[in-house]
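ArsA/GET3 Anion-transporting ATPase-like domain-containing protein, Streptosporangium saharense. Tokens?
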Amino acid sequence: MRARDTDWDGVRLHVVTGKGGTGKTTVAAALALALASGGRRVLLVEVEGRQGIAQVFDLPPLPYEERKIAVAPGGGDVHALAIDPEEAMLDYLEMFYGMRRAGKALTKMGVVDFATTIAPGFRDVLVTGKTTEAVRRKGKDGRRVYDAVVLDAPPTGRVARFLNVTNEVAGLARVGPIKNHADLVNGVVASPETAVHFVTLLEEMPVQETLDGLGELRETGLPPGGIFTNMVRKSLLPASVLDAAAKGRFDPGELALGLKAAGLAEGGANAAAVAEALAEEIAEHAHRTKLERRERRSLDTSGRPRYELPLLADGVDLAGLYELAESIHAQGAA
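Tokens:
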């Protein structure tokens, strides 16, 4: 993978969201690998406590600390962080009040859970705050510690509220450290340094959720990114065959003759039965292809850059993750 311009030059925080079941965490992990290629340093963050990153990379559960988990093509490093809200609260108390020891006592008393239960927006401020701190962080040499940060965010239906921290804490505090903290977070999240990417499948519900999610982002003034269409199947049949099958004009008799000529079926009833079964499969494939074309057209109305990632026949293992990263890079997304 060679260094080059990408669709997201200047973006340092890549937020990845999507409807459940679309492979959001897998795409976030592959994007982190793609961004790290060629010697860059990338942090992959998760916030939902599912240990999805550990599962994708086939690792033990991750602690609340940044640690290297993978080497990207070309020698770059991917680090990971599974954010724990309680630990993020302790970081917050230390940063703004110098009260980490007292904070530990508060967590034992359940005060953190109480606070984030009565004010759910505060929990989001804590976890997004930890992420944006990593984006802003500089080393002793004055350079950014990470070239990019990838956030495996909550699902599409909750992502705008999750990221719109200034609005969420407005009722909690209009001045003081909480408000200042929210403003720091918003300064990163709402800036051109951030892009919110959507993961979808070529199916009606996830596509509609993607379009609705993009609309929500625009309403809240958050920066939309690209659309990653996951698990895309390649058609193995010519367009003319698919069109004929979709219109009910496919001739199983011709297929039976072809099977016999190729020595794949015996003559008579056997060839006819095999041809009928294959014809049904072709008709189903043609119907699905037609629906997928329709969903592609719907996604095109968004005006956002689109990337298609292949369906991996053997499932998502480490080799498959690197294959997806290669595809992301080749399409100019990283």
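The chain has a mean pLDDT of 85.
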